[in-house]
Amino acid sequence: MKYLLSLFFLLCAVISVNAQKVKLTLNLTKGNTYYMVSSANSNISQIINTENNKINLTTSFKIAFKVTDVIDSVYNMEASYQSLSLKVRTVNGNAEIDSKDSVNKGIQSEIGAAMINKPFNITITKSGKIRSAENVETMIDNVFNDFKQVDPAKKEFIKSQFIQPFGAKALKEHLEMAGSIFPDGFVKKNKKWTRNLKLESTITANLKTNYKLLEITNDSFLVHAESPVVTDNDAGESMINGLPVKYHLTGTIVSDIRADKNTGWITELKSKQTLKGDLEIQDNPKVPGGATIPITINNEQVTTDK
């Protein structure tokens, strides 16, 4: 009888958790520091002159976000990179930037190490919308200006390698992909909603993401997200390795996002991205007449809070 009563109360507790309505929002505390630790592995396949040119790109970083002020529904944060790394593997050779091993990995890793603990500013709303990511490029510029021994032309090329994965657009994209999960009003398990998001770091695309609340526990909630991706053909060109390019891609992004129930801060995000289409190199002195390259991108990303 005692066992049956215990089982009954356990079932009641489970039913109560799953039936409850919750308000999903950021609820951060002034003075506290929150962390984002992210790693992404991308496999890129390009068909150039009938040959399959494969590239593996691994990016990782850790960022600290200290809440310096809360004004109405907006959090002001002082952010700083705690570590960053970038590894590129191609058939023609490999390259690596690692802020934790600046002694052995060359000038680019020295520059990466110099970026650690350099502050910049983030403002984010309680609904997860990034209002601004300020002074990121200024911080990077100031770091590069201290390396006067580097040839100016080479310095600009290296700087572009840093800004693409670690600059303001990329950072804002990382934060919004993680933080745009919050719906309006109260929701319960299996509730669905949508959010619009614009990618602008490497490719330009307008996303309409479909969310579903999969689980509510005593200390967290789990959201599933699916986004069809179609690049914006009207967007301007991007600069990749000094070449003007435009992407024409379609695909999907599928994510599972777990967040702390009390703070709303992401504790784990797992995402898979599959894109396929063409990379169009615009007419330029290095590639007269331009070129169109079939390309496939498979990317996996994991983000945690520690």
Structure description:
This protein is α+β, with helices and mostly antiparallel strands and 306 residues long. The chain is 21% helix and 51% strand. Strands 2, 3, 4, 5, 6, 7, 9, 10, 11, 12, 13, 14 and 15 form a 13-stranded antiparallel sheet that branches. A two-stranded antiparallel ribbon has the order 1-8. The longest helix is centred in the N-terminal third of the chain and has 18 residues.
Note the main attributes of this structure.
single chain; disordered N terminus; 306 residues; 5 helices; alpha+beta; two-stranded antiparallel ribbon; 13-stranded antiparallel beta sheet
Tell me the layout of helices and strands.
Blueprint lengths: L1 H18 L2 E2 L9 E16 L2 E21 L2 E17 L2 E6 L8 H8 L5 E6 L4 E5 L1 H10 L6 H15 L1 H12 L6 E2 L4 E8 L5 E12 L3 E11 L7 E3 L2 E18 L5 E16 L9 E14 L2
Antiparallel strand pairs: 1-8, 2-3, 2-15, 3-4, 4-5, 4-6, 6-7, 9-10, 10-11, 11-13, 12-13, 13-14, 14-15
Mean pLDDT over the residues: 87
Helix percentage: 10-25%
| Contiguous runs where pLDDT drops below 50 for at least 5 residues | 1-17
Q: What is the CA-CA span between the terminal residues? A: 44 Å
The description of the largest β-sheet is: 13 strands, antiparallel
Query: Would you report the number of β strands?
Result: 15
Rg over CA atoms, rounded to whole Å, is 22 Å
Q: What sort of overall outline do the alpha carbons produce when their principal axes are compared?
A: globular
Structural class: alpha+beta
SS element count, helices: 5
